[in-house]
Design a protein that fits this description.
This protein is of the alpha+beta class. It has one domain: Hypothetical protein (Archaeosine Trna-guanine Transglycosylase, Chain: A, domain 4, Roll). It has three helices and five strands. It has a five-stranded mixed beta sheet with strand order 1-3-4-5-2. Bound molecules: the ligand CC(=O)Nc1ccn([C@H]2C[C@H](O)[C@@H](CO)O2)c(=O)n1. Ligand LWPQI4CV is lined by residues 6-8, 11, 23-25, 43, 73, 83-84, 87.
Protein backbone atom coordinates (compact mmCIF):
# COMPACT_ATOMS: atom_id res chain seq x y z
CA UNK A 1 0.00 0.00 0.00
CA UNK A 2 1.58 3.27 -1.13
CA UNK A 3 0.78 6.68 0.29
CA UNK A 4 -1.12 9.03 -2.01
CA UNK A 5 -0.18 12.40 -3.46
CA UNK A 6 -2.60 14.41 -5.58
CA UNK A 7 -2.00 16.79 -8.48
CA UNK A 8 -4.41 19.09 -10.26
CA UNK A 9 -5.59 17.26 -13.37
CA UNK A 10 -4.21 19.95 -15.68
CA UNK A 11 -0.70 18.69 -14.82
CA UNK A 12 -1.36 15.02 -15.68
CA UNK A 13 -0.02 15.15 -19.28
CA UNK A 14 3.25 16.80 -18.19
CA UNK A 15 3.77 14.29 -15.38
CA UNK A 16 3.06 11.28 -17.58
CA UNK A 17 5.41 12.63 -20.28
CA UNK A 18 8.20 13.21 -17.75
CA UNK A 19 8.16 16.96 -18.42
CA UNK A 20 7.24 17.82 -14.83
CA UNK A 21 9.66 16.35 -12.31
CA UNK A 22 9.17 18.52 -9.22
CA UNK A 23 6.29 19.85 -7.22
CA UNK A 24 6.29 22.58 -4.59
CA UNK A 25 4.04 22.06 -1.59
CA UNK A 26 3.36 23.58 1.80
CA UNK A 27 4.39 21.84 5.02
CA UNK A 28 1.12 19.90 5.14
CA UNK A 29 2.40 18.01 2.08
CA UNK A 30 6.07 17.81 3.07
CA UNK A 31 5.62 14.23 4.29
CA UNK A 32 6.99 12.27 1.26
CA UNK A 33 10.34 10.64 1.98
CA UNK A 34 13.30 10.12 -0.32
CA UNK A 35 13.10 6.66 -1.88
CA UNK A 36 9.36 6.39 -1.26
CA UNK A 37 6.96 5.25 -3.99
CA UNK A 38 3.69 7.20 -4.11
CA UNK A 39 0.38 6.54 -5.77
CA UNK A 40 -0.61 9.65 -7.69
CA UNK A 41 -4.22 10.73 -8.13
CA UNK A 42 -5.99 13.73 -9.57
CA UNK A 43 -7.04 16.26 -6.94
CA UNK A 44 -10.44 16.95 -8.50
CA UNK A 45 -11.80 13.42 -8.92
CA UNK A 46 -9.30 11.23 -7.10
CA UNK A 47 -8.42 9.29 -10.27
CA UNK A 48 -5.23 7.19 -10.04
CA UNK A 49 -2.91 7.97 -12.94
CA UNK A 50 0.62 6.84 -12.06
CA UNK A 51 3.20 6.02 -9.43
CA UNK A 52 6.18 8.21 -8.73
CA UNK A 53 9.45 7.57 -6.93
CA UNK A 54 10.57 10.39 -4.64
CA UNK A 55 14.18 11.41 -5.33
CA UNK A 56 14.56 14.48 -3.12
CA UNK A 57 12.61 16.54 -0.59
CA UNK A 58 13.90 19.81 0.79
CA UNK A 59 12.63 23.21 1.94
CA UNK A 60 12.97 26.14 -0.44
CA UNK A 61 12.09 29.81 -0.27
CA UNK A 62 10.05 31.47 -3.00
CA UNK A 63 12.94 33.91 -3.59
CA UNK A 64 15.32 31.01 -4.29
CA UNK A 65 13.25 29.61 -7.16
CA UNK A 66 15.01 30.00 -10.51
CA UNK A 67 14.73 29.00 -14.15
CA UNK A 68 15.94 25.48 -13.41
CA UNK A 69 13.04 24.91 -11.03
CA UNK A 70 10.65 26.40 -13.56
CA UNK A 71 11.98 24.05 -16.27
CA UNK A 72 11.47 21.12 -13.93
CA UNK A 73 7.82 22.25 -13.68
CA UNK A 74 7.65 22.71 -17.48
CA UNK A 75 6.85 26.40 -16.94
CA UNK A 76 8.54 29.75 -17.07
CA UNK A 77 9.57 31.19 -13.72
CA UNK A 78 6.81 33.80 -14.01
CA UNK A 79 4.23 31.09 -14.72
CA UNK A 80 5.46 29.03 -11.78
CA UNK A 81 5.20 32.00 -9.40
CA UNK A 82 1.68 32.72 -10.70
CA UNK A 83 0.65 29.11 -10.13
CA UNK A 84 2.07 29.15 -6.60
CA UNK A 85 0.36 32.45 -5.79
CA UNK A 86 -2.93 30.93 -6.98
CA UNK A 87 -2.61 27.76 -4.89
CA UNK A 88 -0.80 29.18 -1.86
CA UNK A 89 -1.63 32.93 -1.60
CA UNK A 90 0.94 34.85 0.44
CA UNK A 91 3.19 31.85 1.10
CA UNK A 92 6.92 32.32 0.58
CA UNK A 93 8.31 29.03 1.90
CA UNK A 94 7.76 25.65 0.27
CA UNK A 95 8.92 22.07 0.17
CA UNK A 96 10.36 20.89 -3.11
CA UNK A 97 9.60 17.27 -3.95
CA UNK A 98 11.61 15.90 -6.89
CA UNK A 99 10.36 12.70 -8.44
CA UNK A 100 10.54 10.40 -11.41
CA UNK A 101 7.87 8.22 -12.91
CA UNK A 102 8.11 4.67 -11.63
CA UNK A 103 8.60 2.01 -14.25
CA UNK A 104 7.78 -1.67 -14.46
CA UNK A 105 5.44 -3.18 -11.89
CA UNK A 106 5.50 0.00 -9.81
CA UNK A 107 3.77 1.91 -12.61
CA UNK A 108 0.59 -0.19 -12.35
CA UNK A 109 -2.18 0.24 -9.76
C1 LIG B 1 -4.07 20.29 -2.93
C2 LIG B 1 -2.88 20.90 -3.61
O1 LIG B 1 -2.33 21.87 -3.17
N1 LIG B 1 -2.47 20.32 -4.74
C3 LIG B 1 -1.47 20.69 -5.59
C4 LIG B 1 -0.47 21.59 -5.28
C5 LIG B 1 0.46 21.87 -6.26
N2 LIG B 1 0.36 21.29 -7.45
C6 LIG B 1 1.31 21.59 -8.51
C7 LIG B 1 1.15 22.93 -9.12
C8 LIG B 1 2.55 23.25 -9.58
O2 LIG B 1 2.87 22.61 -10.77
C9 LIG B 1 3.39 22.62 -8.54
C10 LIG B 1 3.85 23.59 -7.53
O3 LIG B 1 3.00 23.68 -6.49
O4 LIG B 1 2.62 21.55 -7.99
C11 LIG B 1 -0.62 20.40 -7.73
O5 LIG B 1 -0.70 19.85 -8.85
N3 LIG B 1 -1.52 20.11 -6.80
Amino acid sequence: MYRKLTFFSRFVPDILAGRKTITLRDEAESWPRIGETLDVHTFEDDRWFCRICVEDVHPIELAALDDTHARQENMTLAELKDVLAGIYPGRDAFWLIRFKLCSGDDSQP
